[in-house]
Specification:
five-stranded mixed β-sheet; Immunoglobulin-like; about 110 residues; three-stranded antiparallel β-sheet; alpha+beta
Length: about 110
């Protein structure tokens, strides 16, 4: 009976430890809400938004984007005529990165 109790406590503590350590294990995540890939913007004004979870730093084409405590970010940018490839990079505090790209067109 004591063995089963010790085993149950061990399983619960191990599960709790894994649950708490998940953000450290998982690394950063990046979800871009806007712009959609291959979108066209007649005026060249583009709203960029999304969520960078577990990210210490977020950049767009090498320029730092600010994000709030929950990882949400939003910015409005102006692009010249033609096509542009936007490269988003989220980096966590351990240097792990995740990259997302979007292609936009301004007629």
């Amino acid at each position: 009976m004591t063995r089963y109790l010790i085993l149950a406590v061990f399983v619960v503590l191990t599960g709790y430890g894994l649950m708490e350590a998940w953000p450290l294990i998982a690394g950063p995540a990046l979800s871009i809400s806007s712009p959609a890939d291959n979108a066209s913007f007649a005026g060249g004004i583009v709203t960029i938004s999304g969520v960078a979870a577990r990210a210490a730093q977020l950049s767009l084409d090498g320029a730092i984007l600010t994000h709030d405590q929950d990882g949400a970010f939003s910015s409005t940018l102006t692009f010249p005529r033609g096509g542009s490839i936007l490269t988003f990079v989220a980096t966590d505090r351990f240097g792990r990165t995740v990259t997302e790209t979007r292609t936009i067109f301004v007629p």
